[in-house]
Specification:
Layout (H helix, E strand, L loop, with lengths): L19 E3 L1 H7 L2 E6 L11 H14 L4 E7 L3 H13 L2 E7 L11 H8 L3 E5 L1 H5 L1 H14 L4 E3 L7 H22 L6 E7 L3 H13 L3 E7 L4 H18 L12 E3 L12 H14 L8 H14 L7 E6 L10 H5 L3
Parallel strand pairs: 2-10, 3-4, 3-6, 4-5, 7-8, 7-10, 8-9
Antiparallel strand pairs: 1-2
Helix pairs in contact: 2-3, 2-7, 3-4, 7-8, 8-9, 10-11
The chain binds pyridoxal-5'-phosphate.
Length: 338
Amino acid sequence: MIPAELLPPRLHLASTPTPLQKMERLSRQAGVEIFFKRDDFTGSELSGNKIRKLEFLLADALAKGADTVITCGGAQSNHCRATALAAVKAGLSSLLLLRASDPANPPALSGNILLDRLAGSEIVWVTPEQYRARDEIFEREARRLRSEGRRPYIIPEGGSTALGAWGYVAAMEELAADLRRLDGGRVTPTTVICAAGSGGTTAGLALGARLSGAEIRVVGVNVCDDRDYFVAIIDGICRDFCRTWPTEVMDAVPPYEIVDGYVGRGYALSRTEELAAVRDLVRLEGVVLDPVYTGKAYFGMLAELERHPQRFGRRIVFIHTGGLFGLFPIAEQLAGLV
Ligand SMILES: Cc1ncc(COP(=O)(O)O)c(C=O)c1O
């Protein structure tokens, strides 16, 4: 149990607990038990993992008297879309730094971008090169907003900070309770697998698994960069978390694994075999993944299981972290597969 005095202030924005569903046909095919934790059910427009982090980050923004949140991501960022909509619910404005190869000709108004605009977010388009120096742009935009009498609050990429990680510390407590119910009290050894994009979900799950005391292995499949990059980020978040909220069990970086090798053509670029795996799951279980995160992580999980069927033990929980809106902008690429 998370000690109540440890839990930071939180807004209740996500529809939780989310269902834990067994994928019967997929489990039979794979020869191991596979469950999906349906974090794509955290909301309709708020769907996905980001809202769990934003419950803590937006509570902090409000506590600090902010009236506008600033955050960043790729053009079709789920995090930015969730921030834009959650900000409205919290009575805040939002400004999004979105990455595009040609900021003068930003991508079409579809998928998450359409929702960002519907939510009334101010969008600042930046090149991939400018994005690398996003902290400076955050500061520049924050200065501009302050000069207009506004009170900005910066949320780093993906909401992946120690405070944001609380979203998945709490989610792991929820999952451990799901598993206890399933198993009649104790938890059968389980491997939890998620997509790693900015690291906060993996970090939160690993911290939460340590806190739960259950035999739960945490695996992140990176969808960009490489293992070393994610270990540096996730270790950093965990160290920060343990420093800020120290407890007897939270005194060091908890164990987790990064399964590298499934970035494929690069961030947000899909290979035909990844999209075919997404399509096949829709036809097998009626569950729709996204191309950028869950589709890649799922493809990686299946590829690992094909090579070593017991690679993740006998029970897997795959976290469906949402992202459905990202399918629509690649309809043309999917057309040949459906
Ligand atoms: C749908 C989806 N799944 C997974 C992730 C990865 O989560 P994290 O950024 O916490 O690693 C993201 C965001 O990056 C996402 O939008």
